[in-house]
Amino acid sequence: MAKKLVIKVTAGADAPERCSQAFTVAAVAVASGVDVSLWLTGESSWFALPGRAAEFDLPHAAPLPDLLDSLLAGGRVTLCTQCAARREITEKDVIEGVRIAGAQVFVQESLADDTQALVY
Questions:
Q1: Which tens digits make up the pLDDT trace of 46-68?
Q2: Would you give the DSSP letter of residue 2?
Q3: Cα torsion angle, 65, 66, 67, 73, sign
């Protein structure tokens, strides 16, 4: 089993099931002791902003704010640099603990030894 898991979520409210699956898998991995790095890209970028996860609703799914909180507490959450720029999101706008980084960091994390990368 990979000791590290990098998950890129490209979906937000536009594809709620895919979005929820990414956050759920990431949170379960954190709870299982896996080193997790969740990347917010595309429409999921909005969840880097305070209160936006609370607006997400999907029946029979764990609440997104709870999943995000567990990821911030036990893993890493990164907002894509280009995605942030396209949405005019800056470091001063994001939830405490969310970093903004680009493709070079994503590639570096994804290709590290004992790492599995998933894209949703």
A1: 999 999 999 999 999 999 999 99
A2: -
A3: positive
Residue type, 36: V
> Is the alpha carbon torsion for 103, 108, 13, 74 positive or negative?
negative
**Going by C-beta distance under 8 Å and a sequence separation of 6 or more, which residues neighbour residue 2?**
34, 114, 115, 116
Residue pLDDT, tens place only, 69-94: 999 999 999 999 999 999 999 999 99
As given in the structure block, the two tokens for residue 14 are 């536009």
For the cut 80, the answer to whether the pLDDT of residue 23 exceeds it is yes
CA 99 to chain centre: 11
3 state SS of 77: strand
